[in-house]
Amino acid sequence: MVFPLPQGEGIKRRGIMSDQFKGIEPMVYQSKINVPYSWWAGDTATRFFVALRDEKRITATQCGACRKVFLPPRKVCPSCFTENTNWVNISDEGTLISFSVARRQLAAIPHDRKIPVIWGLIKLDGADTAMLHYLDEVKPEEVVIGMRVKAVFSETRKGNIRDISHFQPVK
Q1: How do residues 10-32 score in pLDDT, each as one tens digit?
Q2: Are the C-beta atoms of residues 153 and 136 closer than 8 Å to each other?
Q3: Adjacent-strand bridge partners of 90
Q4: ω into residue 110 within 30 of 0, thus cis?
Q5: Are the CB atoms for 65 and 82 separated by under 8 Å?
Q6: Closest CA to 91 of 151, 22, 45
Q7: Which helix H or strand E contains 87, and what residues bound it?
Q8: Which of 160, 69, 83, 163 has the alpha carbon at shortest distance from 123?
Q9: Which of 3, 41, 85, 160 has its CA 20 to 30 A from that of 18?
């Protein structure tokens, strides 16, 4: 509901805030503010990341009703809305479903990645869904849909998706 502004005799219009600052040049203070934060990824993602970090093992959830295997793991099956309580180990090898090449630095690309960067949609053996990750150790012109790839784990793992450094072609 919208209420009209009061009108009539005896009502004075007060100045709006921007009127108070007319003619004053804004002052800009350039600085960086450190805002440390952390968040809990939830039971499902935490279990996935702990297995990556501690055991270099890729895990997925499986629907108890329709038997689909989800990677990245999903708490609830999007097909039949059943809670996924079964965990399965997934191969570190799979098939490249699709890919994209970035030939210039973008905000989404970590600075430790060399350009060009190749993102691949990868369906690992044993999974019914695909995950997005980096492809490396291959030239963009050599990448083909359907090629076999294998996960390369980071030397130092921290419990996040970058514990898989990248995927490389299976030789």
Answers
A1: 555 555 666 677 777 877 878 88
A2: no
A3: 58
A4: no
A5: yes
A6: 151
A7: strand 86-90
A8: 69
A9: 3
